[in-house]
Amino acid sequence: MQRILQSTLSLRNFRPRPCYLSQQVAYSHTENTLKEVDEFIIPKMPPFNYIPPPYNGPSADEIVKKRKEYLSPSILHFYKNPLNLVDGKMQYLYDENGRRYLDAFGGIATVCCGHCHPDVVEAIVNQTRRLQHSTVLYLNHAIANFAESLASKLPGDLKVVFFTNSGTEANELALMMARLYTGCHDIISLRNGYHGNAAATMGATAQCNYKFNVVQTGVHHALNPDPYRGVFGSEGVKYARDVQDIIDYGTCGRVGGFIAEAIQGVGGILELAPGYLPAVYDSIRKAGGLCIADEVQSGFARTGSHFWGFEAHGVVPDIVTMAKVFHDISELGVLIGKDYLVGVMD
User: Fold this and answer.
1) Which has the closest alpha carbon to 292: 173, 165, 157, 160?
2) How many CB atoms lie within 10 A of CB 135?
3) Does 164 lie in the same domain as 85?
4) Closest by alpha carbon to 82, among 68, 99, 69, 63?
5) 176, 175, 172, 145: which is closest to 161 by C-alpha?
6) Higher pLDDT, 343 or 65
7) Which of 18, 200, 267, 283 is the most exposed place for a label (fewest CB within 10 A)?
8) Does residue 18 share a domain with residue 46?
9) What would the pLDDT profile of 22-40 be if each residue is shown by its tens digit?
10) Confidence of residue 343 (pLDDT cuts 50, 70, 90)
């Protein structure tokens, strides 16, 4: 996510400076007229009953200097004059000077309950006071109850839960499980898709911004069923023929699995063409493979009409991965598979 945003934003100055837009509208106006145009274009923030406590920490310049010395240059901030965000409350963020910002980014789609939601904060504090960490070698009700709650939101026999530390790890586990269960190494994913940038997931990801020049084997990238700019428009079944061609001409006729986002997130919030997933799932299963739904960005009722993105396509995957939405409370990823996958990791 960082590198693609860098390429998009690097040519722009995103300082909170209202005059840039109005300069185009009122270039030849007087200073007083320009001020009036600014006030017209830039909406005023609505009242909000919260005042952040005074900030006594290091300044933005001091933080930038320390980052350059101690952090990897791969951790980018994308701004010529980056904000030093020090406080958050519900939909708002505050900088070191107490200025309020409407957060339309949500930490790359992770802050789903708002910043510092009182119910979330209370649950975290109460659990931390009681027990911070033990291990799965001992019993604790929290993990079992959480798994049960997650499984209740999925259709059919999707009820075997594996917890990970991120969406990338969940997708890594999904690909490994598919290969172990089927005994086949070949995986099919979509061009323009993003599934992480670890070992196997970098192979499944099909965007050059997220790939390094390392060995990536066993993944075939199918034609992206883009209903807006794709060669077949919104005719999903025609795109699905490319997956069958990959099975017929690029593999031994058997595959380990197929992984796709129902709505491509990093790829531009792009929905898959109607009819595509049912046709592809049919081809994959006939070839002995498992169907993996990457719901890291589209899951948890974000689409409005369904709880999961794949439900809009009328399919039921064999494995569902999810993350991001949990980051209000913890760095967490989840894989939920069908019950016949129980023993694959033994």
Assistant:
1) 173
2) 6
3) no
4) 63
5) 145
6) 65
7) 18
8) yes
9) 333 333 344 444 455 455 5
10) confident
CA dihedral (134, 137, 139, 140) positive or negative? positive
Residues 90 and 195 reside in one and the same domain: no
The pLDDT of residue 15 is above 80: no
Specify the amino acid at residue 74: S
pLDDT at residue 40, as a whole number:
56
- pLDDT tens digits for range 245-278: 999 999 999 999 999 999 999 999 999 999 999 9
Contact criterion met (CB below 8 Å) for 264 and 194 = yes
Cα 21 to Cα 9: distance, rounded to the nearest angstrom: 16
For the chain, the average pLDDT equals 86
Q: Which domain holds residue 341?
A: 135-345
Within this chain, do residues 228 and 93 fall inside the same structural domain, yes or no? no
- Report whether pLDDT(179) > 70: yes
